[in-house]
Amino acid sequence: MADLSSILSVLLSLLAETLLVAAVCLGLFRLRRRLGLGPLLVLLGSNQVLSVILATSIFFRLTPDLVISPGSTVLFTGTIATALLVYLREDIPKTRTLIFGLVGVNLALVALLWVTGWQMSRLPTLNLLDLPIEIFLLNPRPYLVGTAALFVDLFLIVIVYELGRQTLGGVPKLVRIVTSLVSVLALDAFVFTIGAFAGTGRVSELLAGQLVGKVTFGAVWGVLIWAYLRLVEPAAESRMHETGEVAVLSILTYRDRYKMVREQLEVERAASRAKSRFMAHMSHELRTPLNAIIGFTSLLLSPSAPKDRTQVRLYLERVAENGRHLLHLINGILDLSKIEAGRIELNLQELSVNDLVAETVEQVRSQAVAKNLHLRADLPESEIRLTTDAVRFKQIIFNLVGNAIKFTDDGGVTVKLIGNEAGSAPRLEIVDTGIGIPSEKLESVFDAFTQVDAGMNRRFQGTGLGLTISRALCAQLGYQIGVESSPCGGTVFRLTLNPVLPSQYVKS
């Protein structure tokens, strides 16, 4: 009976100590919105150092063959359980901060202990409390093993819990919390005992005590954490964390995924800003022809409409011109939408590239004539044949040549078709003597919803989608498109007409 009474006394004292430590840890965690996690971090770091001191020096004997340490049983177990609580109610960055902070505080306190021990052993010291110097000059191995075990266990408890959440979703949360704590603490009992006490001849005895203490009070801490989550801060299971396989290792892969998400967010923000600029620009582009159409038709329908047929015809020509311009704008937007949705169908035929280039140049010649520019097609004597989509191929040339004419005030535009040279693919070059493009903006000319220069676009009207559509069509046809330019030095758009289409785009 005396033995049973002694065992109960030890267990009850450890339980009381557990409740006291839990009350302080949970209280500081509850006040984290006001105080932050700093006080909790200092407390847990101090507990970890104290737990190593106690785990290597002070033991309670339960039976003649079993001793148990309050350091491992109460303090270390409480540190791991509190870290799990932080993960369950905070986000991953705060959990990682707590983990690295705990290790840092632990190392700092251990270093202070060693410095104090060195001072007490080498310098004249007045020890008013008669503290034994052995407290400060413990074997460094338990501290190093304890710190390493702490670091691994703090990450491991999150991984084990998430693994249980993914594979045992139907199991009550209490069981998952307790199982996670018990499994991690049982593993730690083996690692710490063997690492810290190997060669002392007492590994078996200490290992049994480590297992009994950590497993038993790991379960107690699990119940306390579960009760806190249920009664004090109830919340949905996945409020803060991901689901799926990625969540199991989220505590380890957070930095890489965070960087990837930030980069993706920046891309999305840039796209959003570009689309906003595009919509502001398009609202002007669409309103201008619409206002003209409405204005001229309202004038023709009004009682004061001109009677002269020549004047009426002039008004109708302006209505038709603005209607065609509006249709061109809408077609550009619809084409881009189809390309982005992958809904462009290619009607492939073997055709003469010479003929396609000549026809397209003639179709845009009126634009060059209107600006007093020369437009020339430089074609080789030998015929170049290619399997392509005639409509889309001509659309590319039309966009590039039209763009060259738009940004050229003096001189002209030359469309040069270069045949196979030394086995290379044929090339198509559109050369203009226009205003040119700064080198740092050469790539951005192909971006959707992006204007190279807002001031330029106020002078040269248009949607700014022609080059975007041309590059997308080139990609579908298997062509390569590039640009060379310099300010006031003209621009050269170069198409490499690869004779073989990518298999994913071949449609008959």
Structural commentary:
This protein has 508 residues and is an alpha+beta fold. The protein has 3 domains: 2-241, no CATH class; 268-341, Signal transduction histidine kinase, dimerisation/phosphotransfer (DHp) domain (Helix Hairpins); 348-505, Heat Shock Protein 90, CATH 3.30.565.10. Helices cover 63% and strands 9% of the residues. The protein has helices spanning 2-30, 32-35, 38-55, 70-89, 92-122, 140-167, 173-197, 203-231, 250-301, 309-341, 353-370, 390-406, 454-459, 466-477, and strands spanning 60-63, 66-68, 348-352, 374-378, 385-389, 412-418, 427-432, 480-485, 491-496. It has a 5-stranded mixed beta sheet with strand order 4-6-7-9-8, covered by helices on one side. It has a two-stranded antiparallel sheet with strand order 1-2. Strand 1 and strand 2 (66-68) form a beta hairpin. Helix 1 (2-30) crosses helix 8 (203-231), helix 3 (38-55) packs antiparallel against helix 4 and helix 10 packs across helix 14. The chain starts with a helix and ends in a 12-residue tail after the last strand. The model is unreliable at 242-248 and 502-508 (pLDDT under 50).
Give the key terms.
508 residues; alpha+beta; Heat Shock Protein 90; two-stranded antiparallel ribbon; 14 helices; elongated; disordered C terminus
Count of helical segments? 14
Question: Major sheet: order of its strands?
Answer: 4-6-7-9-8
**What integer value in Å does the Rg equal?**
39 Å
Low-confidence stretches: 242-248, 502-508
Q: Mean of the pLDDT scores?
A: 81
Q: What is the distance, rounded to the nearest whole angstrom, between the alpha carbons of the first and last residues?
A: 93 Å
What is the N-to-C succession of helices and strands?
A: HHHEEHHHHHHHEHEEHEEHHEE
Largest sheet: 5 strands, mixed
Q: How much strand content do the residues show? A: 5-15%
Q: Name the overall outline.
A: elongated
